[in-house]
Amino acid sequence: MYRKRKKRKKIIIIAIIVFCSFFVLFYSLSSNRKLTTVESFFKDAAMLVMKGVMLPFTSLNLEKGEDLTESYLIQKNLNVHLEEEIEQLRDTLDLNQTLTGYTPINATVITRNKSYWYQTLTIDKGKKAGLKKNMVAITKNGLIGKIEKVTNYSSEIKLITANDVNNKVSVSIATTNGDTTAILSGYDKETNLVLISGVDSMVEIKEGDVVTTSGLGGMFPRGIYIGVVETITNDKYGLSKTLGVKTSQDFNNIHYVTILGEEKE
Q1: How much is the pLDDT for 68?
Q2: Same domain, 46 and 132
């Protein structure tokens, strides 16, 4: 009887710890403030618990030539997009071969807060893997954002689709008359286009013009692909244009990312 009570007590304590960890994890996702030491600790704890729980299932991704869809659905739908994830993982590994100026750090998306779906996502790498705040996050489809918060074993990425006045990206638009710079400053959920504002109305922009990072401001390296111009709207005063840019990245479907680490000498 004593052993049963002792075992039950341990289970309750573990459940409380896990609950608190997840609570702090998701609470921190909804806040722009800096994480406290206690929050960082619990967020790391929650990350390790989640990785431990998912390990038996995510290991299925390493198997080849076998239809695992039915098996996965039985296992609580932890990987309903198995084939897509495998393809993204291959793309991530291929991307590493093309990054010669930076040390690439591959990471897995471990969680996203539904209330902030287009704002942030959390990956399973942090300070221990060499990640720092403001490091750039990309996929083979181009820029997706930058690191906003870092703990020892996880990082939160602020996506370029975040409608945040502080989340500005300087971009370059390749036109027939040369490059022009502007600011990527929002996202339209209805059209799935990222928005670029501040384009001089006198600059000739055409649909299909390529948009990349400009390198201005020192936050994002120059030349990272973002997308192509799909819509062009003049403001009511005729002084500037707002562009809708179609990206190659499906922001509803991100499983693996690459962080641009330290620059190579």
Answers
A1: 40
A2: yes
